[in-house]
Amino acid sequence: MKRTQAVALGEAPADLVIAGGRVFLPETGEFRALDVAICDNEIAALPDDADEVIGENTRVIDADGRAVLPGFIDAHTHVDTVQTLENAYHYALEGGTTTVVTETSGLGGAFGAEGVEALLAATSYLPITVKATVPPQPLADTFEEPRADEDEAEALAELLADDRIVGVGETDWIHVVGRDSPIERLHERAEREGKRSCGHGAGCDGAKLSAFAGVVDNDHEAITADGVVERVERGIHAIGRYGSIRDDVEAIAGAVDRVGAAELSLSTDGMWPRKLLDEGLMDAVVRQTIEAGVDPADAIRMATLNPARHFGLDDRGSLAPGNAADVLVVDDLESVHVTTVISGGEVVVHNNEVRVAPRSHEYPERFYDAVDVRTDPEAFRVPADAADAEGRVRAIQLGEGLLSHEATVEPAESEGELRAAPERDVAKVALLDRHPDADGSGFAGFLTGYGIERGGVATSMTMEATGVLAVGADDADLRAAVERVNELGGGWAVVRDGDVIAELPYRVAGCAADLEVEETAKLLDAAENAVRSLGVGVERPLVSLASLPFVGVPTMKLTTSGYADVVRRRLVGLEPENGA
């Protein structure tokens, strides 16, 4: 007989008891006056009174009438970009996030299966549970040839047998709806393994969404209540989000009364360091959801039981006996003020005191020198004959949020080259291939709507792409920014008049900083302020740049081979459509 059974029967002492709380039962949505008995890092029982299992060595935490909840689960995030988790996990735990379901498109995009395995190794010893997805991006062939050869594709598919892998990562609908795709082998393997296929359905609706629903199991891209309902009606588990990329809480809140809470989960979709420090992680998401009018019991269920059940985490999301001992004590449900956190049976936060600290990890050596792109003038040169007879070229126009559209602009011309024309809000933009197997290719074009008036900025943070993106009002500064990102091994660099005025290194695969969270937040703030000093006035200047290569969001994006016309699924060049 397991010790947990003996504790449940009152025949053995518990290791830990949380007494005197109002225990939340997500299965029924009730709060009940129960104690929580923990043994061997599992929930052993929820007795009315745990006195009979309190022994000489039992630790007792007095909840004193406060709410006792299961640990929060982030149903969709990106812990392999911006900030390494081993330097940030303690802030996640402080707010009660004990499990994360993460994409691996950063490390996995750069290093394939090896990158996914490196992330699993880096997070395996942390007192927070990390479940990951397999990145489909190396198999995408919509705009360029897939990165993964047969051996690499098979290695990615084999990862789906790993217990810490919960499925295939977010797949943009444009890659798989109405066309054959190499990504299908991952979805087929996931189905055989009983794992999930995650969707990215931005701009997908109607018949296309119905077709997409036959491929994926969940989607986090609904930005309206109707979009949430449309997904649930098609059997897609809808995941709401509040984080550094988007805030779609109102969409989830507006749909709860129409579809119920059972097919809804919550996530951050990534919380950058400053927001993590200022607001928290899943505690912030739950708080925002409650403030949007969702009943606290429903909001908590969407951050606990629902994602656990959806992703097959049978030992998470509930305080039922047999579950992992992930338990929170919360002062106030409206503010979601977490005071005590037990993660896997370990008391990691008690009475607002965090008892764990950042940890170090050594990645494979080649992960620390993962950025090497062209910086010669030819990489950024656009010949004057690329323009039409009126001197116009096709460009990307920034829209709201992550959206970008096709535009026609008139760049400046000098010495047989097309250059930025900041007085007309025309910047030069380039995306250079930094994949370890890259041939040094890249594409230079033009961007409008960013507002840059001087200088240049470069980054290796390119969503779902493995490149270095550069935007500038001046070719020399644009080049200098790329050179600095090269020297840093990845990250951000902002240049004005030839001088680097802000920088942040992303040492780990060019994807994430291995600094402490406070330092990363400080340097990201400095980078954003430096970009604004160049005249940029858009709401989120760093996110806007990072998303330019993200073909999962309509309608005009950037690749290393040209512009991606997302809706029509084709590559286009600088020549304006029909000469217009």
Note down, in words, how this protein is organized.
- By secondary structure, the protein is α/β, with parallel strands linked by helices.
- It has 16 helices and 32 strands.
- The strands form six sheets. Strands 1, 2, 3, 4, 5, 15, 16, 17 and 18 form a nine-stranded mixed beta sheet that branches. Strands 6-8-9-10-11-12-13-14 form an eight-stranded parallel beta sheet.
- α4 (150-158) runs parallel beside α6 and α8 packs across α9.
- The chain is elongated, with a radius of gyration of 25 Å.
- It starts with a helix and ends in an 8-residue tail after the last strand.
- The model has no long low-confidence stretch (mean pLDDT 96).
Beta strand count: 32
Terminal Cα separation, in Å?
Answer: 78 Å
Strand content: 25-35%
Low-pLDDT parts are none
Instruction: Bin the helical content.
Output: 25-40%
Q: How many strands, what sense, and barrel or not for the largest sheet?
A: 9 strands, mixed
Which structural class matches the secondary elements? alpha/beta
Radius of gyration: 25 Å
Question: Total number of helical segments?
Answer: 16
Q: Mean pLDDT, rounded to whole units?
A: 96
Shape: elongated
